[in-house]
Amino acid sequence: MEIVRAADATDDWREVLKWECRLEELMRAASESPHRDLILSTFTRAYMQEMTSTGSTKNIMSIVQLEERRIAVLASMERFRDSGEAISNLAQCLLQANFRTEATKVFNRARDLGAEHGFFSVECQACLGLGKIAMAEGRRE
């Protein structure tokens, strides 16, 4: 855990990603779900920073896999608002990588989760993303 915290504190995605080869080892050592959430969110954030910094989408599947694991951890802790926000963030990342069809499905998933658990902010975040996609596709309704 301390390794991840120290790398994350540098605010340099390169430092965090140096530890990716030990991700599974770190996850096994983090027996508690909140620690697993921290590990997964740290690596996801680092990959997203890399994508923003370099403009490369080569690690988009790593982001998707990490964020899906994180969403499952959050759901297991019944942190549905955080889970919905993570789902919306995943959709936004897919949209940034120009995967509109996949982003639409994921935004709908976030909207449904927000509606089911009564988190209006999650629904709004998802609807905003769906609106951006509609506008980009030329739909104005």
Protein model, in words:
It is a single chain. The chain is mainly alpha-helical. Helix content is 79%, strand content 0%. It has helices at residues 2-9, 13-17, 23-29, 33-54, 60-76, 80-96, 100-117, 120-136. Helix 4 runs antiparallel to helix 5 (60-76). The mean pLDDT is 89.
Q: How would you summarize what this structure contains?
A:
The chain has 141 residues and is mostly helical. The protein contains 8 helices and no strands. The chain has helices at 2-9, 13-17, 23-29, 33-54, 60-76, 80-96, 100-117, 120-136.
Question: Top keywords for this entry?
Answer:
mainly alpha; 0% strand; 141 residues; globular; 8 helices
Element layout with pairings:
Layout: H1 2-9, H2 13-17, H3 23-29, H4 33-54, H5 60-76, H6 80-96, H7 100-117, H8 120-136
Helix pairs in contact: 4-5, 5-6, 6-7, 6-8, 7-8
* Whole-number mean pLDDT: 89
Number of strands: 0
Rg of Cα set: 16 Å
Structural class: mainly alpha
The end-to-end span amounts to: 48 Å
How much beta, percentage-wise? under 5%
What is the overall number of helices?
8
Largest sheet: none
**Overall helicity:** over 70%
Shape, principal axes of CA atoms: globular
